[in-house]
Amino acid sequence: MACIEARGLRKAFGTTIALDGINLRVEEGRILGLIGPNGAGKTTALNAILGLTPYQGELRVLGRDPWTEREQLMRDVCFISDIAVLPRWIRVAQLLEYVAGVHPRFDRAKAEGFLAKTNIQRGSKVRELSKGMVTQLHLALVMAIDARLLVLDEPTLGLDILYRKQFYDSLLNDYYDRSRTIVVTTHQVEEIQNVLTDVMFMDRGRIVFSCSMEEVESRYAEVMVRPEQIAAAQKLRPIEERQLLGRGIMLFDLSQNQLDRTQLDRPQLDRAQLAALGEVRTPSIADLFVAVVGNHAGQATAAPKGAAR
Amino acid sequence: MNTPSNTMHESPLDAREIAPAVLSATRPFYWSVRRELWENRSIYIAPLAAGAVYLFAFLISLIWLPHHRIRGFSALDPAQQHEAITQPYDFAAGLFMATAMIVGVFYCLEALHGERRDRSILFWKSLPVSDVTTVLSKASIPYVVLPLLTVGLTVATQFIMLLLASAVLSAQGMSVANYWAQVSWFQMSLMLFYHLLTVHVLGHAPFYAWFLLVSAWARRAAILWAFLPPIAIMVVEKIAFNTTYFANMLGDALSGGTEAVPFPGRMPIDPGMQLTPGHFLLSPGLWIGLAITAAFLFAAVRLRRNREPI
Lengths: 309, 310
Hints:
A: 309 residues, alpha/beta, six-stranded mixed beta sheet, 33% helix, B: 310 residues, 79% helix, disordered N terminus
């Protein structure tokens, strides 16, 4: 059974279409990164998955309809929606007691164990903790819940680099066990590149790109083209071209898919050909995003160019 | 929307989950009520503070008692004597009831509004607690917690008053027995309980439900949305038809209808008052009020489910 399955998922706020008929299938055990510019519909999609918002179309999460079965679904689903949602008045000890009281799959000793590794005091109120500590606290709670799906919506927004690194490290080391599914959205794409198993780009309420990370590595290549080879490289029709410190950087699609190539009128490429042009490497998700979403939308405002370094 | 294969997948899963679901049906409710008490400590601090201040004032009045009251006391007729003695007790009960009502109104207006304002609703909704459980646990504060607290604190305070007064009287060499007979503490407590149940819980139920509904609906200034529409209806009715049916209706409901009290602090605990529970239970006003309460609470649950953080 797929962890998340959506067909024709639609959601409109007045005349604004937030989700424009999304089809989506996330298998169990994957770590999916949902990347997109602000207003692409990522949070709306996650809210629909979490049963926080009504929608049109078909959606099953762990076999349940999230809108009508939120309460039961939340036994198997956890989410950190933004870092500011823990109630500010509550004490750490009360929070542990409450979650232990209402959640049948919460292991309090485990949460205490995670908290012991931090500087968080049991008697502190959430409002007295720093932003980073609040996130640590929320993560400790969530990791102590034996859930099947974890949804993270900008979980590290506004945290310093140490906390951000630590967040994904503990998630991978102490939580992820290949049977759990994680869906994460973030603007700090580079930080999760090595964490993900799948990546999905959203733009204007649609999924414009969906790919496993292995596929990204085999299908796309970025070449730092030597100046004398620029003209030759351009003949090979890169999907994206940019300048960095005076050097041309080109992104090539090595797709073996016959249909793709005829549609886009691109020649068949192989890595040996590209190696002759300059240094070849796997593109970062951010660069791929600019290439895919920028081209798809016919504009380049989706993300700042060259911001990936 | 259900495909046959999905339904087949679900049935064994549901069967497994029925047992723990039934067992733990009350647990989320219990913890949700505790959560409310953690967040809103004014629920018990305000009545406690009012009681402490009142006891202090009563103690001072006792110290002055021998100098003032006693001199003219024997000149009063028995009814006046009775009133002079029981008045402080009535007043204590009235004080706790008024405190509970104020706390209840402000609590309800904040209950479903605050969690959206500070976005913590996203955290509460990430836990397996239904919107029905949440709204009912919040409604239980004005319907159960505050009335029980009022009874408990009033009875305790009146008992302490009785002990203090007895100590002072016996120190003066006066009869304590007569004083106890006049106060009749136990009967007073029963009357108080009856009054709270009929007027403050059942009679006022639609008001608290309305405040909860407004707090689930309003984006800001819940207190204005709670009070301005009823006032607007009264004004429009008065100008358009020169009648005051709506105002009278609210007034009746507020004062407790058939179990009405001429003066809030006076009557509820007067042992001489006639109780008419049968009449009360048969009055249509009670059942209309309860139906309105249910409708308001249902709407509050729907709103909590649909509303996003502010």
